[in-house]
Amino acid sequence: MRVTKAIFPVAGLGTRFLPATKANPKEMLPIVDKPLIQYAVEDAIAAGITELIFVTSSSKRSIEDHFDSNYELESNLLDRGKYDLLEIVQDILPEGVSCAYIRQKSPQGLGHAVLCAKQLVSNEPFAVLLADDLIDGGQQSCLQQMMTVFTQTHASVVAVEKISPAETKKYGVIDVRSTENRIATIYGIVEKPLPEEAPSNLGVVGRYILTPVIFQLLEQTSKGSHGEIQLTDAIAKLLQIEKVMAFQFHGRRYDCGSKLGYLEATVAYALKHPELGMDFAKLLEGFVACSA
Q: I need a labelling partner for 205 at 20 to 30 A (CA). Which of 37, 74, 80, 273 fits?
């Protein structure tokens, strides 16, 4: 079973970044010179995804524009001989990769956003990527690593990482018995538990590979707090029907849904940027020297 489709839930309001996100989607906030959503798309494409499904809203047209051709810009760059920039613009969406967009009429939770894409996915396994979680997987993207686990197990795969007890209230936390080669069978999952109630120190992050059974379970999942349908609740039901695996990916995750995580990612990616890295490091050294 090849996974060729990926869902990107991008209909959120981005209230933690107001006023920057009043007219600009949070997924379009740049990390150096690329928007967050492009990093997530590159993660997916590196893993062999060829169909990108964006669950969007009426205020997210700039995401559609970003992955569409801009003939005026491309013609201008060509006429001015700026071939390097032209290549960057044209490579945003590689040959053979397509985009589809579906509207989520109102924000009703991650589970509802995934359910909105049911008709476009059909009866196939698929990936879900949250742009808020920027993951630097090094040689292999996070989703590439997860695809290997999916091929080995033929089961749904959820990306997890170790979290501190104080952070459990921000994550879905899984129950596992043993881990081998960073892979474990999930026996339970709890959404945002108190530290003393958390079943482990492994929190779910924004990368999933799911079997299509999840759609039926999402349709049966009741709305929880704030009137939202939680993907975690549907995965908890999925555990009772078929095996679901947890995978501790190799790499570094940046929580770009928070301001501090966003700034951390900006610094990290600026330091390793091929054009800016050395100069940016010197700039930081200057700031540190001034504040010492």
A: 273
Note the pLDDT tens digit of each residue in 132-146: 999 999 889 999 999
Q: What is the H or E stretch that residue 189 is in?
A: strand 183-191
Alpha-carbon distance 230 to 222, whole Å? 9
Q: Structure tokens of 52?
A: 């990108």
pLDDT-derived band at 45 (thresholds 50, 70, 90) equals: very high
C-alpha to C-alpha distance for 233 and 230, rounded to whole angstroms: 5
Q: What tokens were used for 134?
A: 């920027």
Residues in the chain: 292
Q: Residue 231: helix, strand or coil by DSSP?
A: helix
Phi, psi of 199 (to 5 degrees): -75, -15
Is 114:128 a contact under the CB 8 Å cutoff? Answer: yes
Give the span between the Cα atoms of 39 and 29, in whole angstroms. 11
Please give the pLDDT value at position 225.
63
Cα separation, 268 vs 265, in Å, equals 5
pLDDT, mean over the chain: 92
Task: Give the pLDDT score at 207.
Answer: 97
For 132, the enclosing helix (H) or strand (E) is none
Give the pLDDT of residue 122: 85
